[in-house]
């Protein structure tokens, strides 16, 4: 399954959208949390919220990749150390 990845900024906050090319459906939509310093929120709480948003992004990307792998849409991962056993061009 091929994807079209759209990235943009909404104000100063980055957004990400991953769409399936064949159906056009949105597989994942993510937006970085907005800073609410003008509303008097604690800066440490805002930093924690931003860190959680980044962790959520990577968790969702992992799940999307895992779904592709289980459906057989990805090439199998090479075994650990397989690059060492592969013959190099010109070496006999």
List keywords for this structure.
three-stranded antiparallel sheet, 35% helix
Structural class: alpha+beta
Parts with pLDDT < 50 across at least 5 consecutive residues: none
Cα radius of gyration in angstroms? 20 Å
> Largest sheet, described in full?
3 strands, antiparallel
- For the secondary structure, the number of strands is 3
Helix content: 25-40%
Proportion of beta-strand residues? 15-25%
Sketch the topology as an H/E string, one letter per element: EEEHH
Q: Tell me the overall shape.
A: elongated
Q: What is the mean pLDDT?
A: 79
The count of helical stretches stands at: 2
Numbering strands along the chain, what is their spatial order in the largest sheet? 1-2-3
Q: How far apart are the termini?
A: 39 Å
Descriptive account of the structure:
- The chain is α+β, with helices and mostly antiparallel strands and 92 residues long.
- It has a domain at 3-30 and 42-71.
- The chain has 2 helices and 3 strands; from the N terminus they run E-E-E-H-H.
- Strands 1-2-3 form a 3-stranded antiparallel β-sheet, with helices on one face.
- The longest helix has 28 residues, at 43-70.
- The two termini are 39 Å apart.
Task: Summarize this structure briefly.
By secondary structure, the protein is an alpha+beta fold.
Blueprint (SSEs and pairs):
Elements: E1 3-10, E2 13-20, E3 26-31, H1 43-70, H2 82-85
Antiparallel strand pairs: 1-2, 2-3
């Amino acid at each position: 399954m091929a994807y079209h990845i759209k990235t943009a900024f909404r104000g100063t906050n980055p957004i990400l959208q991953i769409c399936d090319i064949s159906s056009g459906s949105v597989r994942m939509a993510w937006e970085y949390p907005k800073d609410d310093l003008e509303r008097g929120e604690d800066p440490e709480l805002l930093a924690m919220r931003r860190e959680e948003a980044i962790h959520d992004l990577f968790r969702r990307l992992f799940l999307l990749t895992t779904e592709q792998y289980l459906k057989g849409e990805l090439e199998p991962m090479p075994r650990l150390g397989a690059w060492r056993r592969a013959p190099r061009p010109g070496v006999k």
